[in-house]
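User: Modeling request: complex.
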Amino acid sequence: MSHTYRLIFDCPDQVGIVTRVGDLITQNGGWISQANHHSEADNNWFFSRIEVKADSLPFELETLQEKFAPLANELNMNLRIVDSAAPKRVVLMVSKGTHCLADLLDRWKSKELFFDIACVISNHNDMRGLCEFYGLKYHHVVIDKDNKQPGFDEVEHIVDDCNAETIVLARYMQIIPPALCLKYKYQVINIHHSFLPSFIGARPYHQAHRRGVKLIGATCHYVTEQLDEGPIIEQDVVRVSHSAAVEDLVRLGKDVEKTVLARGLRAHLEDRVLVHGNSTVVFN
Amino acid sequence: MSHTYRLIFDCPDQVGIVTRVGDLITQNGGWISQANHHSEADNNWFFSRIEVKADSLPFELETLQEKFAPLANELNMNLRIVDSAAPKRVVLMVSKGTHCLADLLDRWKSKELFFDIACVISNHNDMRGLCEFYGLKYHHVVIDKDNKQPGFDEVEHIVDDCNAETIVLARYMQIIPPALCLKYKYQVINIHHSFLPSFIGARPYHQAHRRGVKLIGATCHYVTEQLDEGPIIEQDVVRVSHSAAVEDLVRLGKDVEKTVLARGLRAHLEDRVLVHGNSTVVFN
Amino acid sequence: MSHTYRLIFDCPDQVGIVTRVGDLITQNGGWISQANHHSEADNNWFFSRIEVKADSLPFELETLQEKFAPLANELNMNLRIVDSAAPKRVVLMVSKGTHCLADLLDRWKSKELFFDIACVISNHNDMRGLCEFYGLKYHHVVIDKDNKQPGFDEVEHIVDDCNAETIVLARYMQIIPPALCLKYKYQVINIHHSFLPSFIGARPYHQAHRRGVKLIGATCHYVTEQLDEGPIIEQDVVRVSHSAAVEDLVRLGKDVEKTVLARGLRAHLEDRVLVHGNSTVVFN
Amino acid sequence: MSHTYRLIFDCPDQVGIVTRVGDLITQNGGWISQANHHSEADNNWFFSRIEVKADSLPFELETLQEKFAPLANELNMNLRIVDSAAPKRVVLMVSKGTHCLADLLDRWKSKELFFDIACVISNHNDMRGLCEFYGLKYHHVVIDKDNKQPGFDEVEHIVDDCNAETIVLARYMQIIPPALCLKYKYQVINIHHSFLPSFIGARPYHQAHRRGVKLIGATCHYVTEQLDEGPIIEQDVVRVSHSAAVEDLVRLGKDVEKTVLARGLRAHLEDRVLVHGNSTVVFN
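Assistant: Request completed. Predicted assembly structure:
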């Protein structure tokens, strides 16, 4: 992976955006190695992600940010400029299920996914051994159903304390308080099962089995105050047949969950996801 | 396709079903060329589909049916015995959209799907040309929103009159009256779009677009009085990205719809679908 | 589909390409509604597809082409500028199999795919009825195995004569002479089955069945002198199981073939495919 | 998972097989909970997998085996009768790549896959830590390119010594000697990349990238003396685009590899795979 600066922005659409951004980059000798643009005709909004080779510029990230500030201001951009060589700090939150965690740890350890694990937080102690084997700090924060707030205060304190940018709910199984979601807006990533049609209420896999669905899916999304209604980053499904019992559906669901979470997290870590309204643009 | 008699049945599960059925076939010299069994542990129910080579039996379908009647009775079977060489008579119902109809007609004409088209019924005249090119009878039955019953009475009359077994709603876009669904129970096949999550209400593709879904799907199911809630025969999805406008979602949805409908219809025509409660066993 | 001019080009990569192209568009008031860029690091090559709203420019296509000529020359671009409102003229070539043809005709008729059908050429008369129903000109050109050249001379004459840009081999089943491929370089689109692993020689479906493959695929590609080795536009697969006989594999293969051909043709018609060496960039 | 005895057999096809097998089971009070049959018309061969509830039989596995011996002999069956409660003993062989190993260990630890790990063998020491964290025995057996035989003699000795039934090459990257393959016939499971078309020779991912393939796949198969030509158990693919560099293809390939290996291994562990000639019947 070559060293680049990533410019990610969205703004009201108008003539000349690409050109003005390009001019600014080129004037400073910047070499664009990748660029994606998308304009949403419905609401006249423009989205862009541009990678500039870091060594083509005669200055550092901060200077690039300064040079872009006036244009960003003029065009009403939501702009981030990010150094591809700086790993994001991520807090992993887990419960008892291992499939997503084991998968992410292997991808992290083998450098397939590029990020720092600030720590792991869990309401159970089950995953401590695996996490400590990988040399990670593990916080056991009990979330008691009659008294959730103190628990989540501690979670928030830990996250703040370790300067994490991103929180990954790797089958955490607890509802994150709205205030925490807002504080880390579009930085909290969740994975949950999905079906066609959707099943509301308890034991969705049992409902899906009774209904005889032929596909089992998973959705990776940002967590907002509306629980599982946040912007979708990635989805996939797997085929199932009548011969699958409920526990087979659950097992097959796990495979999709971990794959979809890993893909969604990758898109997030590489700054490929732009949120607008309740939907996303994902530049793959 | 070799000539077989297909035994399709479901019944309460117990020891010895397969054996007793097999005995009866074998005693008469029957050669089982294919057999699928499934037992649903939750509700202790047994499902089976067996193909016997027609020329291995010294008698005709009717005799086979007679010989099985006592056992079917004893084991409380829902049993059908079907001649694979007898094409099912199908009524196609369409509106203005051509994609499912054109696809089915080509599969029928090229003998990829084996069935007779009794006639085509539509609330519009748009598809008359294509149907008549293929030599099919075309009924234009106006369904008026203030006065649906007379229209559907005519539909019912036509269907009854042509001895159809199966009705395929190939994007018919009208709600079939519950009485007609009941009369042709598990014989009326529909195709409709599906999303993860589901979108209730009008303009689902617009909702899906606003929500930024990454998959677009379709479900083929039997129509029951509960509209789109009937037993699912087949489902599939296709990937979409942010670059797809609403009309692209619709277009991609069409591709899934026609493929899923064709697969579901094939399973139905080959007597591979057994309905139990609100779900299906599909022996592929 | 809004009216745009599409600029499609590839050239040696260097600093400032996007900016210089963007400048030229913006100076003339052009509004970029979509843009995709890709640079291939291995061979330092740059690819781009830009859509400019036609009504944002004060002149016609020819003037735009003139204005771009010097820059294209300077940057060694392979550049095309295309009017999205001008349908490409396509010759369809078919044999006896109907699945791809029926599918394409429905997509064309329903305006899902935007192109003109100059004519249909076939070495058999089987498809004449369907084509004439759709109001198309149908040429029956016999290709005799001992005397192919005269047949293909006639084909070439017909194609030249109707000013076709694109030739679609919709299961034509004959090898196009290298000279004709060269004359219509990257304009002749073919669809053929694909397997993992590949099977060389006769009756590939029989080989695939004997080998017990679990996937059946199709590849849509440009035809070059190296037969089925040309640049790949699109591929897909479908799952199969041991219960599928050879004829089931063939049938499932047809479904993939027609879907993949339609997707590949769409990419071609919308000028989304750029060929470089023996591979393609497809901007979806 | 309920406790069953699994009867898996294949034999020349003839009238009455299912019935005679069923009779024998039923006479002894056996309750068939699942049954799959398949007959291959081409070569007149019959395949079957039957699960009988263990507690419906008044005797143990050995007695069941004895009672079936005469029928198996008479019908020329290749018959195995297996206790579902007895985990298979598996040797995992790995090199430096972690993705398949980490995935299998998590599936094993979480009891998603039911088997015993006899030990792990590797030609490198890299995976020792993870394996020992999971409490597994790890053998570092150097395979030297000039002197492979002593290394593989040691491997064979270890495998024999620990009474393993199954060997899983989880990206082992070394060619297993034919003699060892023969000794553990249809018990050595491998996973390798697959492409459409296939690429012969070195660096297949580089070849695939140069050719611009749109799908990357993996094949799980039994290892035979013909290297990667053994009977296929499972396959799958993932879509790729031109924006994927060689290292992205490799990364996406890993995801398919580990999923396909896990699915293939599950089928093997549950005795769902029957090999005939060079192909498999997989009863899912």
